[in-house]
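Workshop exercise sheet. Pairs work together: one partner reads the sequence aloud, the other fills in the structure field after running the prediction. Swap roles for the next sheet.
Pair: D.N. / O.F.
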Amino acid sequence: MSTSIIAPSARIGEGVRIGEMCVIGDNVTIGSGCVIGHHVVIHDDTSIGENVRIDDGASIGKSPMRAANSAVTKDRQLDPCAIDSDCIIGTNVVIYRGSTIGRKVLIADLSTVRENVKIGRFTIVGRGVAIENFCNIGNYVKLETNVYITAYSDIEDRVFVAPCVATSNDNYVGRTEERFKHFKGVVIRKGARVGVNSTILPGKTIEEDALIAAGAILTTDAPAKKIMLGAPAKPFRDVPEEQLLENQGWEDK
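Structure field:
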């Protein structure tokens, strides 16, 4: 006998396997061929495509919490969470209501995707990654282990972000009322790469095919096809021709 609780209004496709102690809320849609692990919670109205794997302990479509003095979390009606077909969602992942996950995305164990986030197809979100609210993540992006993407950021297609990269959106570091006028995340343009343990300051743009070296602190915009090195980061040299995105022979499908 199953120990899971499934709302009568939930629509479950053919061949879906659901583990023990799961809770599936009102008006949830789960496409055919999905595999749901143990202790998974799928909140009301969430839509899940076909052949999606959701591992143990994940929470999908969770409503955001709001602290009394939160600067960026507002009380508003959010669209349901939507996960496209062929995705893999890892153990203890939390995906909030108001987020949209594209086809064949992998979100690894212990990651968090906040509300008002869109993730494009074929993107990899590594273990322990945190994507804050109001972010757009493109197609074929790789966010490696423990990356932090601050709120109000835009990351375009084919971007690579190495482990432990930190981004920020508040130049006032939590002080003065003036800060509320200037919140701005980072922009990382198509094909740009960000090296391990580097830090990107608020509002900075990394242009197409730029490379931020490991450990760099980016305090200015990064020009296209340039390597930025140091703390603070400065132009070092051109990105080698053979490393440019246009020379990789990749096709978007």
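Discussion prompt: The chain has a mean pLDDT of 95. What would you look at next?
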